[in-house]
Amino acid sequence: xxxxxxxxxxxxxxxxxxxxxxxxxxxxxxxxxxxxxxxxxxxxxxxxxxxxxxxxxxxxxxxxxxxxxxxxxxxxxxxxxxxxxxxxxxxxxxxxxxxxxxxxxxxxxxxxxxxxxxxxxxxxxxxxxxxxxxxxxxxxxxxxxxxxxxxxxxxxxxxxxxxxxxxxxxxxxxxxxxxxxxxxxxxxxxxxxxxxxxxxxxxxxxxxxxxxxxxxxxxxxxxxxxxxxxxxxxxxxxxxxxxxxxxxxxxxxxxxxxxxxxxxxxxxxxxxxxxxxxxxxxxxxxxxxxxxxxxxxxxxxxxxxxxxxxxxxxxxxxxxxxxxxxxxxxxxxxxxxxxxxxxxxxxxxxxxxxxxxxxxxxxxxxxxxxxxxxxxxxxxxxxx
Length: 384
Ligand SMILES: [Zn+2]
Ligand SMILES: [Zn+2]
Prior knowledge:
The chain is mostly helical. It has helices spanning 3-8, 14-28, 30-37, 42-68, 76-88, 94-106, 122-126, 151-158, 160-179, 182-205, 226-231, 238-243, 259-269, 281-301, 306-342, 346-351, 353-383; strands at residues 73-74, 273-274. The chain is built from 17 helices and 2 strands.
């Protein structure tokens, strides 16, 4: 029996399997039946949308970017908020979720070690992995020791069942009593919302590892997919996330749909979040150019005319090496600059040759980057 078979033949996890069966059955039978028979009022629909966002964003902003990746720091008030609404998402405790997710990043696509390896098929990475027990039995918390020091994480772990029941039964029933539509609230803001929020998260493990582009790395199956970013509160930029996992953003451009990033940023203005981590632009650019260069090499290797291909390969390699050397030089100067700044020599720094050096290199780097871009476009035209 190989490692793949172990999971497929592991005993069924009846807790999660029955939870999925019940919630899905209610969502596809009772929810439409009630709607057709009695109709849903606006308050139930508003509660459905609001709770879908609250639970989804607590998973993306809290479970994922805060606790799994330490991409920023959050005030205890926000951490309690995430712990409560994250529990409402019915995706297990923070400790379990983050432990599994850290393993996913560490062993991405590994058939045996990645808990939701995309290499084991769309269904397995979407939901199949949760329907059976882990081969090793319980999840190992060795990789989340830092989270065990967070009293809010441990409080949620200890009282997960009562918190989950309170959030998933107490909140919809409470809203129903206020708006006098208990069954409508339980069905829409309870059952349907759980099912929709589930699949939103599951898309990130399945579709975001299957369809989309790979502008930053092709060393794993993660993809950037702007369409799914809209459905997943910004987590569709998964190719970027897998290479720069500690960045609090997943969509790095201002126009990238990433409400989780906007929420974290807005919270920093009122002191709820701090120390937001971002990857320096030059590192992002280096990854992009590296991928473009790799693709160009692959395309040239398949070119019909070997003479033309050899000429362009040599040209591109030469320019790429120059670009790399320049970027390294720039990065070195940047770290020198940081040292000087640390020494509080601001005045001196402005007059130093180092300052001028950086400006010169930045200009050259821009030019070199442009040359590379033009070359990349030219070689395609030459091969066409
Ligand atoms: Zn992640
Ligand atoms: Zn992933």
